[in-house]
Fold:
Amino acid sequence: MLEPYSDDPSTNGILTNDPEKLKAMAIQRDKSGFQLAFHAIGDRANRIALDVFEAVAKTNGRRDRRDRIEHAQVVAPMDFARFAELQVIASMQPSHQTTDMRWAEDRIGRERIIGAYAWASMLKNSVRLAFGTDYNVEPISPFRGLYACVTRERPDGGPKNGWEPQEKISLADCIRAYTSGSAYAQFEEGKKGELKEGEYADFIVLSNDLTKVPPAQFTKTRVLRTVVGGRTVYQAN
Structure:
């Protein structure tokens, strides 16, 4: 963290890698053609990752890298725009928010919560999102993540109107981050992530139309059929 933890002023957390060594390693790996990704949760960790990506671009030149930060959970608000400027993808897992809300504010304080799990702020700053589940840390079902996106509530309900409700995003934006957003992060747009002629026929058939049922029904939704590459690989009884 940039500043000490609110519930333990003796520590800013653990920085697992030296920033200068990270820069040197990243510059070399990028020069060899690797796509880079950093695991960063705290605001200092995210800033260091952005600093590294900036150094890589300055040293090796601009190109379509699609580097990403995994989790990007707590970000200093002034750094949101840097994601877009550096074309860094925020690879986030919505269900972390519903798990962490019970203790996050006690740990980092009210001021820093504003930049936590901030999907709407990311989108407002033109940041590309790629969503996943982070299984097995979180449940593998994406329906819990969809529920988190549109409600910011616990799976069992509450708090009323959601935790930090200004960061809710629409169901369409959330699905886009899980599908075409993740495909883009893999350089596979045009191949998968959307139902279009010429792309892989990967899709699921659900027991509920998520656009027509209340969010409380999302986590009760069942997969009736799974199709991968145009072939049915799962059919519910």
Summary: The CA atoms of residues 31 and 60 lie 7 Å apart. The mean pLDDT is 97. Residues 43-60 form the longest helix (18 residues). Residues 19-193 form a domain with the TIM Barrel fold (CATH 3.20.20.140).
